[in-house]
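tool=predict chain=A
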Amino acid sequence: MMKKSYDTIIIGAGINGCAIAKEISQTNKSVLLIDKGSIGCGTSSKSSRLIHGGLRYLEQFNFSLVKESLQDRRYLIKNYPQLVKLVPFYIPIYKNTPRPWWIIKIGLTIYDLLSGYEAPHKNISIKEFKSIFPNINTQELCHVYKYFDGHTNDLELTKFVASQAQDNGVEILQNSKIKSLIIDDEKITLDIDDNEVKTNRLINASGSWIDEVNNHFLLPSNYSIAKVSGIHIVVPYLVVSEHLFLQTDAKRIFFMIPDNGQTIIGTTERVETVDTDNIKINQEDINYLIKMSNNYLKKPISSNDIAHSYIGIRPLIHSKKNPTDMSREYKLDFHKIGKNMVLHIFGGKLTTFHSLSQKVLNKSLNLN
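tool=predict ok
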């Protein structure tokens, strides 16, 4: 049975919504967390399963995001050791690789610096690389770097954070529909599965659905998102034995990731224009991942080798003042309406859920 009133109601039981619920509930506030699906059923369970600083973000000089992500990586490895582990990644550099070895070297050196030299990168001999990756072509291979980043099971991590929130007293409603959401000067009133509940604090952590939620319930917002789909293919055997960081001719990157006897290969980046629920896997993108993989593999893969594929939607932020400017950082979009607070979580990624939830908590406490 739901209560009639909660200190905070959160829309979206992805990793950010679950983490925010956990943090707020530790202050003895009553929290209701709602999702139209199950816990972590959206992008939070359809990632590359990496807890990483974002090595490629250094090309955009986004040092603050990389530093924050690496700090979060350290926190998650320490506090969720059963779910987040530091693992080696290998970067082979060929003669025709679009980013030369010295650019990669500079990037890895900065990465080490921002991580506090937690696990510094190394040069690996081509001979050693061949022994680790016998199925990878080494013709015209010039350099190999080994660095470290985090690996996780994204869905299990999200579920674990949700269970921590529940241990703190958070009520979680899954497969529930918000039929109406009305804001007046005194209260925010929601009709959830024909049950009326009230709050003065509403947090919208609906991820790639955020624009649709805001538009449907006429909620004020200062940002919008671009929905960028990331498709992964899963091969039901080990194509590689360790994590491999690869590049395409167009300077895009993709990973080959061993995972419980399978290999995850991804990801793509395609801007989608339809509602999130209507975004489907595109065969063209699957073919692209197969083609890019076969540029490196001695034993090529084909469509017959694909056990399944999955798609996640990254919500990249548009500023309404400059819609062409997209950011991988997150924004906390706060609105005061009478006695009420509405807070939208725009953007965010798996790695930074802890720092994001801490900032939301501090914002909430400052408003009391």
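The helical segments are 15-25, 63-79, 101-114, 126-132, 154-167, 210-217, 283-294, 353-366. The domain at 223-319 is CATH 3.30.9.10 (D-Amino Acid Oxidase; Chain A, domain 2).
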